[in-house]
Every structure is written in C-alpha cells, then in structure tokens.
Design goal:
Blueprint (H helix, E strand, L loop, with lengths): L2 H4 L1 E5 L1 H19 L5 E6 L3 H17 L7 E8 L11 E4 L13 E9 L3 H12 L4 E11 L13 E7 L3 E3 L22 E4 L9
C-alpha cells in the first residue's frame, strides 16, 4: 500500500467506476458514431481510464447496432511539473505530424482523467483547433463540480463518467498521487478505486 492510499478514503469503488465508464462509453458511441472521431488521450493520467473506456466501447459495439472505431493519438501536457501549484501548460509530447495524423476538418475528442478548472483542457483545445480540427470536445473520467478557488478556463466536459466536489485531491485510475507523499505516490495511479487524499493542504486546479 502506498503512503497516499494510507491517508485516503474511498470515493468510488472499482465496481462503481467500471459501471460509470460503461455508461459513458455508451454515450460516446451514441454521440460520435458516423463522425470518424480522433480520441486524443492525455498521458500519463488518462491512460488507465482511456484503456477501460475504449475496451468498453469495443465490447458494446460488437453487441449493438451502432459502430464507433475511433482513431487514437496521445499528447503529454505538463501543468503541475513537480510542484503543487499549476503553471502555464506546456506540451511535452505533441500529436504526430500531419502526414501521420491529420486532424484538419476532423472531430477530435480530448480524453483526460479529471476536469477541474479546465486549464489543461482549454490549452489542448486551443492547440488542436489551431491545427484545423472542425470540432473539439472532451471526455473525462471525473468532472469536478461546485465553487472553485481558481479561475475556470474551460466549461464542463462534453461527457464525463463521474463527479466530485472541487477542492478534493483524487488518486486512482491514473490520477496523480498525493503530492505530499515522500514515496509511492505514483503507484497510486494504478488503484482501481477512486480515493480522496485527506489533508493535502491546497486545492487542485487542473
């Protein structure tokens, strides 16, 4: 058990998380079938969620009447770095060049783990729009709700699986480990539950 999970309480069990991922996968199929979308996964945080999401989409498509086979791509965008306070997002790893993946006139869905202030989503949305995408939307595991201590940069995600009050630091399903932990915090990304770390001492603002 990591130091983070010792100081955390369960917000959603693994079964609850998977149930909600299956529901949002159904919503994605209904919304994006026939649109040939590109799903841009924001690494590293969104990787576990995106894996479960795309697996659920594939299984539901096999059994249903609607088809959805999104092309996948990924980006790495750093907002926090090694600190606790958010900074201006910067691209660490961009999308492939247009001769490999051309987003011009395409529907692009940004897949991320959590939407709080929307600082990261707003930055990526603008970047992909500048590349010529005709439509940019977002799909997140957790949509934060309620009053915020920070500026809101981006409206609520287009689709979300779960909600959580703003001001809570979450871990599990790819979400960052406790920044106050001395060791083991990255291991918390692989928890199958979503947990709230107590007494972090500041409000996240991703």
């Amino acid at each position: 058990m990591s130091e983070s999970t010792k100081r955390a309480r369960v917000l959603y069990t693994a079964d609850q998380v998977q149930e909600k991922i299956d529901i949002v996968a159904t919503q994605a199929i209904e919304r994006y079938h026939g649109k040939d979308p590109i799903f841009v996964i924001l690494l590293n945080g969104a990787m576990p969620f995106a894996t479960d999401l795309l697996r659920s989409i594939r299984e539901q498509v096999k059994e249903g009447d609607l088809d959805l086979d999104p092309k996948m791509a990924s980006m790495i965008v750093s907002t926090y770095g090694h600190g606790k306070e958010p900074k201006q997002p910067r691209i660490v790893a961009d999308l492939p060049p247009p001769d490999v993946l051309d987003v011009e006139d395409r529907t692009v869905v940004i897949v991320d783990d959590v939407h709080d202030s929307g600082r990261t989503l707003s930055f990526v949305d603008k970047h992909i729009s500048r590349l010529g995408a005709s439509c940019v939307e977002s799909l997140v595991l957790v949509q934060k709700t309620g009053p915020s201590e920070h500026e809101i940069y981006y409206p609520d995600a287009t689709l979300s699986a779960l909600t959580s009050p703003r001001g809570e630091w979450l871990i599990g399903i790819g979400m960052d480990g406790d920044p106050n932990a001395n060791q083991g915090s990255d291991a918390a990304r692989w928890e199958t539950e979503i947990l709230v770390v107590e007494d972090v001492g500041f409000a996240p603002a991703d």
